[in-house]
Design a protein that fits this description.
2 copies of one chain form a homodimer. Chain A contains 15 helices and 27 strands. The first copy, chain A, has 493 residues and is of the alpha+beta class. The first copy, chain A, has 3 domains: 258 residues, BirA Bifunctional Protein, domain 2; 99 residues, Rossmann fold, CATH 3.40.50.800; 70 residues, Translation Initiation Factor IF3 (2-Layer Sandwich). Chain A is globular.
Chain lengths: 493, 493
Amino acid sequence: MAKELKNFTKRADNYSQWYNELVVKADLAEQSAVRGCMVIKPYGYAIWEKMQQTLDKMFKETGVQNAYFPLLIPKSFLCREAEHVEGFAKECAVVTHYRLKNDPDGTGVIVDPAAKLEEELIIRPTSETIIWGTYKNWIHSWRDLPLLCNQWANVMRWEMRTRMFLRTAEFLWQEGHCAHATAEESEARTVQMINLYAEFCEKYMAMPVIIGVKSANERFAGALNTYTIEAMMQDGKALQSGTSHNLGQNFAKAFDVTFVNKENKPEYVWANSWGVSTRLMGALIMTHSDDNGLVLPPHLAPIQVVIVPIYKDKAGLDAISEKVLPLVDELKRMGISVKYDDADNKRPGFKFADYEIKGVPVRLAIGARDLEEGTVELMRRDTLEKESCKFEGIAGHIASLLEDIQRNLLDKAKKRREEMTYTVDSYDEFKEKIEKGGFVLAHWDGTTETEEKIKEDTKATLRCIPLDGDTTPGVCVLTGKPSKQRVIFARNY
Amino acid sequence: MAKELKNFTKRADNYSQWYNELVVKADLAEQSAVRGCMVIKPYGYAIWEKMQQTLDKMFKETGVQNAYFPLLIPKSFLCREAEHVEGFAKECAVVTHYRLKNDPDGTGVIVDPAAKLEEELIIRPTSETIIWGTYKNWIHSWRDLPLLCNQWANVMRWEMRTRMFLRTAEFLWQEGHCAHATAEESEARTVQMINLYAEFCEKYMAMPVIIGVKSANERFAGALNTYTIEAMMQDGKALQSGTSHNLGQNFAKAFDVTFVNKENKPEYVWANSWGVSTRLMGALIMTHSDDNGLVLPPHLAPIQVVIVPIYKDKAGLDAISEKVLPLVDELKRMGISVKYDDADNKRPGFKFADYEIKGVPVRLAIGARDLEEGTVELMRRDTLEKESCKFEGIAGHIASLLEDIQRNLLDKAKKRREEMTYTVDSYDEFKEKIEKGGFVLAHWDGTTETEEKIKEDTKATLRCIPLDGDTTPGVCVLTGKPSKQRVIFARNY
């Protein structure tokens, strides 16, 4: 069984298949009976919960409050903002009826034609429309601003090609929707939130990201400006991990949301929205995991330490438990989540393989010989290194090791990104590097036309115009026209 | 403004209207643009979050893990369990198409007839079917059991008459779905969870409940047995606040979920499911609130203490702040959530009324005279009593006062329930007491026929057969036939 668990596709052989197998074998998620929708299994959900709790706390520290808006959106709402409807109203789940009835042939139920809705309802693909329809009643004066709401919710987009966590028809996310009295304040909040996401990715996911601005072509439907964080996966592809949109007054105008300013004059409200989703789970998996399974950064691991006893009989187990249980208590008091797996229906070898594939950062194994010698075997998941440690003082050692693993994963990911980021000045070199995989820093003439031609030639998309990139001007790698700064191209998820 | 806030319907005049107004005026929720769906506003959502966090912790302490299952359920899944489809497949939102397209007349979007789903999808009214369809792949051996999953999710039932929190088309809830190897274990879990709900209601919501069994007529569609907790609102009506269902092997049989038992023989799995919803918000509101607005038990109040400074000028405010800020820190360190409301765009009178209507348990007011005298004015929301207290040592006083308020609210609710619970032996008396409002303990012959006749005559329903009720036999209040024990009748929400 232990061998079977480990026996799956290697990254080098087929990165995409490796990912799909890993998601299932690590017990994170699986396909459901509904096309494009996944079931998030308990172990996968526990990781998502840690992400949620951390982000939620970070949001609240900036003054954001949670609320909940309806799942269903009247079709007419989507049409209020002209660009938005183009971007979102197309591939979505449409509710047309509100009742089933017994099939006259007696074999099941059918849609009751008498229960047709007057106006169809859409399962939210995103909630700007329903929320700005609501904000109209909440905002009257400058005293009501800023209004800083977030919701944790499920959304649905009828994607044609789906992959677990990365692109699913239904997914879980948070969407923040802020209303401000001035353009400056709204822009500042838009930037604040993309920075918050970047901080979360680095500090908790151990995943470095590049903060940048999307080109007009890749902008959110209805936004003036979209900020993005782009991460690099191990195969060199980019994964857009979070976005923050400055919506200007577009939605306020579409839903007629005005406020009386301090000068007692009516004015349209300024808006932004920002979100991250269960897609971050895909990013987390693909950033750190290896051919042996999942690798989790300690800050997001549901189980940070697992302790496996190796024993022959009940007396042997009792002796180990007597030694281990106080350590379990000590680790818990230190805020470290620990599992003592003394289940007797699985062999130690199976347990080792299972926790390895599930990415538990630190594994301790302890047997009769260890008891005699006052030692314990310790394995760190990131490097798979084993060492025999003194049992005494092991808790302190584990605490610092967890921090070391967290740091090491971030460093490794940063190093890989550096190694796979190329600065190019010719289109031949551009194509060569894109084919090799990685981020390509190139000059671009600023037009959608060029962006699309490059995509057609190379399957690479313009990921972002990096905020802290090199701003030396140059000439476009494709057209030779002037360019203000290098931008990032990559193939992407 | 302060007066206007308070100027709403009194309970004695129109209890139902009082409730509807209170939900809006206390900023808890409001109707949305979608029929029967509400928007849960930040203040209301903050209370729900406290409920969620507390329940989630209690669930996890019993070994339950969270997971997430799809929002949409294939129509055919609903038909697998015969009783279940009767109960749930009728009034529900049906997704029939997956795309909109531009209206040829150019004015908006219409459903694309080419994008009709082969099989319609239902927005989950509850998830037994999709979950047991999934469990089939998760359960093979007795080693896989018990499987204890819960999900926090939105569900939808196309109710004809809706009321905020009490009965809405979309609502938020948790649904636990457990799988066991034996009937005994499954029954024990079913009872464990209804007891857990009762404990939550008493300890956190300060709301006493009666634990009982539903009659066959009121049982969950597809269950062998439904346990319920029934609470009494101030108008004497019952509110079903949570249920736990022993599903026997019905869903395992419908979805062919078997396991190999310790004797190596295949056997159908035993199931239970249990849930509470945002309906608890309605219960919380109606149990404690008064003609001045919401009254919150301290254990669920997002703000437990509010401090309002009363000052004439900046210097006055600074002097107060200097005194108050260390108290704010002290209270926070004690784990008490406190808000120091020094906003200068609202008068103290407005603030008093606003926090009163929002049910903040303890209010402190402090002015120049208080500073001189080393005092502070304290008001407790449950009794509206004011007292002038010494500022020194006020934190400790507040901590014990919060516990006192929590206890007092529970005692008050218990006392009211006692006073409004009647033991009757004749049908005339039954009708009289039901008309008066309250719980009526009466003998019943055990038939659905009698239950329905009583409902027709009096609008009272059989709420439950109480678990720890008086089991002295008697004769049915309507038919005179033998009865094993008294059961509870009441009008209900």
